[in-house]
Design a protein that fits this description.
Length: 158
């Protein structure tokens, strides 16, 4: 299920980025760019923690000046995360991780993955509302829609 949630997150992020890029006003909106950056910043932080790679917060915290640069960070992160999650074994989900942002507390890898997915989901909703306020059309991003349309899905009636 966590693998599905991560793959859905990446699909929904991409769909949202594409919808924003296709809307002239939204594609240059600083509020949207900051929200999108916040989503990928958190995602990249957690992924670096999961795989044991250093995270340069000063570098990563700089909001890109263009949506294109931001979209590239998403693409790169989605590829890395998909490869990592594809090789993740169920037993690893109990591994504890610690973050300086929650001192004195450990989280299981499963809990941290859920945080990443839910955090992204909440901010995608904010972005969709902003896109709609700019008279844009947010894409369908529901988990069940992604689940239905992905290859290999079989419904209970099949």
């Amino acid at each position: 299920m966590l693998q599905d949630l991560v793959h859905h997150k990446n699909y929904a992020n991409t769909a949202l980025l594409n919808a924003i890029a296709a809307h002239e006003q939204a594609s240059v909106d600083p509020e949207l760019r900051h929200l999108l950056h916040h989503i990928i910043l958190a995602n990249r932080f957690w992924l670096s923690l999961f795989v044991g790679q250093p995270f340069d917060l000063d570098k990563e915290a700089r909001v890109p000046e263009s949506l294109g640069v931001l979209a590239e960070a998403y693409r790169e992160t989605h590829e890395l995360e998909s490869r990592w999650i594809g090789g993740l074994q169920a037993a690893e989900l109990d591994r504890l991780v610690q973050t300086p942002f929650i001192p004195g507390r450990s989280l299981s890898l499963a809990q941290a993955l859920m945080q990443v997915c839910l955090h992204s989901h909440g901010h995608r909703a904010q972005c969709a509302a902003k896109l709609r306020a700019l008279e844009g059309d947010p894409p369908p991003m529901d988990f069940i829609v992604w689940l239905k349309d992905r290859p290999g899905f079989q419904s209970l009636s099949d």
